[in-house]
Amino acid sequence: MNEFVVHSQLRWWVRSFLLVFKSSFRSFWIRKSFWFGIFVFSVCLLILFPFALGTEFIQKLPVQLGCFWAIMEFVAVVSLGQCFYFEYEAMMLDVFLTSPMPKSTLFIAKIAFLTVQIFSLSLFVFLFWSILFHVQAIHSVTNLVCFLLLTFLFSVSSASLGVVVHGLTSRSLAKEILHPILFFPFQTGVLLGVSSLSLSCLGFAPLSAVWGQATWWTLLFVYPTIFITLAFLLAPIFFEE
Amino acid sequence: MFLSKSLFQTLPKVVAKPVRFWDTFLLLSALMQLFAWYFALFLIGADTDQGDVYRILFVHVSVAWCAFFWFFASAFFGLRVFFQRDQQKAKAHDFSSHTSMEMALVFSSLVLMTGSFWGRPTWGVWWDWDPRLTSSLVLFLMGCGYLLLRYFTPQASYRIKISAIVSIISSINVPIVYYSVNLWRSVHQPQTFVQRTHNASGDIQLVLLINLMATFLLSIALYKVRRQSISLQETLQEFRGYQ
Amino acid sequence: MISCESISIQFGSEVVVENLSFSLQKGSSLALIGPNGCGKTSLLKILAGLARPSHGQVLYGTDTKNNHENPLQKNLSCLYLSALPAFFLDQSCLENLNLYLSCYNKTYHIDYARELFSKAGLSKKMNSPVRTLSTGQKRKLTLICAVLTLPDLLLADEPSLGLDKNGVTFCLEIFNKLKENNVSFIIASHDDVIVKWCSDVLPLGSFSSQTRNAVPKKLMAIL
Amino acid sequence: MSDYGNSAWQWFVYGSYVFVACVVVVFAIYALKVRNSSLKSLLQEGFLENKEDQ
Questions:
Q1: What is the count of structural domains for chain D?
Q2: Which of residues 162-221 of C touch B (CB under 8 A)?
Q3: 8 A C-beta contact, residue B1 and residue B24
Q4: CA-CA 20 to 30 A from A241: which of A172, B8, B211, C1?
Q5: How many domains, chain B?
Q6: C64 near C1, Cβ under 8 Å?
Q7: Which domain holds residue A192?
Q8: Total domains in the fold of chain A
Q9: Over 70: is that where the pLDDT of A219 sits?
Q10: How far is B169 from chain A (nearest CA, A)?
Q11: What is the pTM of this model?
Q12: Burial letters for A175-186: b for 16+ Cβ neighbours within 10 Å, e otherwise?
C-alpha cells in the first residue's frame, strides 16, 4: 500500500463517513417529531420519579442524581430504538452495503449521530431536571463542565453499545425485547461509574472517592473505545444475509 | 444406560459409543457428588462462629466456580467458531458454545439461590450487593440475553456468528462489572458484613476441594449429555428444513 | 469481471444451487432465468456481496491474476437494484438521486438529469417526495440512478417489474446506454424482452439437487 | 456474632442442598429426554443410516 493509496483511502473513508452522517441527519431532520417525542417521554419520566419517591425525599443529592441517570438510561434505550429505523424502512441498507463505501463508516457514522442525539436530549433533560428537582449542587462552572463531560461519555458509550447490539440483532425477530435485554447488562459498568463519579463531582465526596475517581475515568474512556473498535471490526459481519 | 435397549441397538456405532460412555460417566459423577455432599453435611464439625450454617459454603463456592468456568468456556468456543474455516467444525463449536452458556446459566441461577439461602441466616438479608453475587447476577442476565438472541434468530449461518460475538462480549463484560461493583461498594457502604471464613481450617479446605472436584466432574458430564442433545436436536431440525 | 467457483446456496438442508461456476467478461450481460424459488435473488445478493454462499467463493477483478473476494478491495463499483425500489420515501427524488451518486462518488449535470426525468415522464415529480410515486415510476427512478452512477457491474432483480409498454422501452434504452459505457449486467428476470436483450442466459433450475437425506459420517463424529 | 436464629439452620442448609440436587436432576432429565427423542426421530426419518459419507 503506497502512501498515495493510503491517503486516498483515508480521504474516501472520511468522505463516506460524512455522507452517512449527513444522510442520517437529513432523514432525522425530516422526522423531527422523533426527537421531540423522546424529549416528551423524558419529561414524563421526570414527573414519574418525584410522584413515586415523594417530593421531600428527592431533596437529597444522591437520589436526584440517581433519578437523572435512570431517566438518561431510558432515554438512551428509546432513542437507540430507531437507530437503523429510517434505513430499514426505506431498504437503503442494501444500497449502502453494496456501494463502494467501506462498511465500517455506516456504523461509526451512526454512532456519531446517535451520540449527538442522546447528548442533545440529555442537555434538555438536565435543564428540566435541575428545575423540577431544585438541584442546588451545580454552583460552580467546574461542576457543570464535569457533569456535562460525564453525560457526553455516557452518550458515547450507550450509542456505541446500542449500534453494536442493533448490528447483532439485525436479522432476529422480536427486536424490541432483545435490545433492552442485551443493552442493560452491558451498560452496568458505565452506569456505576457515571453515577458514583457525578456524586463525587458535585461535592458529596467521601474520602475514598478521590482514589476511586482515577479508575472510574479510565473505565469511562476505555468502555466506548472497546465498543467502537468492535463496531469497526465486526462491520462486515453485521448485516450479512 | 438411559436409552431404551431397542433404540440403542439400532444406533450406528459412531453415535452409540459416546452416548453410552457419557451416560455412565454421568451416573458415576452423580454418585461422587452425593458422597461429597454427605461428607460436607455430616462428617466434619460445625464452624466456631457460624454454627452449622456455613455448610452451604461448600455447595455455593463449588457451583460458583462451575458457573464462571462454563461462562468463559462459552467465550472460548465462541472464539473457536470464528477462527474455524470448516463449516461442520464451526457448527460443532457453536453447539459447544451454546451448551456451555446454558450450563453457565443453570449454575449461576444456583449460585444466586444458594447465596441468598446463605445470606438469610448469617446476615439476616436475602440479597447482598456483594461483588461476587452481583457479577453472577449480571452473568445470569447476559446468559438469558444470549439464549433469547439465539432463540429469536431463525437463520443458522447468521445465528452462529452473532452468538459467538455475544458470548465473547459478555465474557469481556464480567470482569468490568466485578471491578466496578467492587469499586462502587467501597464508596457507598464500607464493609459492614463479616467476610467469609478466612480462617478455614485444614479439613474444611480438604472437603471444599473434594466438593469442587465432584461438582466440576458432574458439570462436565451434564455438559456432554446436554451437548449431545443440542447437536442432535439442531441437526434434526436442520434436516427437517427448519434451519 | 466477476467469476464464481463452485457456488452452492443452501436453505437449511435443501440445496438450491449446487456448485455453480461461471465467469462474466467486462461489458457482457447475463440473464438468470428459472422457476420461482430457484435461488435467483439469493444468487444476486451473493454476487453483490450482501450474502455469503454456503460453499465456494465469488471473485471480483478485471483479470484472473489479482482477484479479490471482496468487491471493495478491487474498488469495483457494483450497483444492486433489488426487487423493491430502495429510496428514502420522505425525501425528494433529486435528494435520493444525490444520495445514490455520492455513495458512488459520481457527479452529474442537472440538464442531463432533467432530460432523463422528462424522458421517463417524471419531470413534474422531480422535487416531490418519492412517497408520491407509483411502483412503476419508482422503478424508472432506479433506472435513472443506475444510468447516472455508471457502475462497473449492474445487478438487477426484475428490472421490468411493474413497467408499462413504454416503460420497458425506456428500460432497454437505459441498458443500451449503459452497454455503450462497457457496463456488465447480471439480470434476474421473467420478462422475455429483457432476457432476449441479454447476450447469454443461465438457467438456474437445473442446478438444484435433491436434499441430502443422511447425516454425513463426519458430522456424526462431532455429535 | 449474635445468634442469627441458628435454631432453624437445618431449613436453610438442607434446603439449599436439596434445591441444587433438584435443579441438577431436572436439567439432566430434560437433556436426556431431548436427546433420546431426537435420536428416535432421526432414526425414524432415516437420517442416521450407515451410508457412506456424502
A1: 1
A2: 211, 213, 215-221
A3: yes
A4: C1
A5: 1
A6: no
A7: 11-238
A8: 1
A9: yes
A10: 9
A11: 0.87
A12: eeebbbbbbbbb
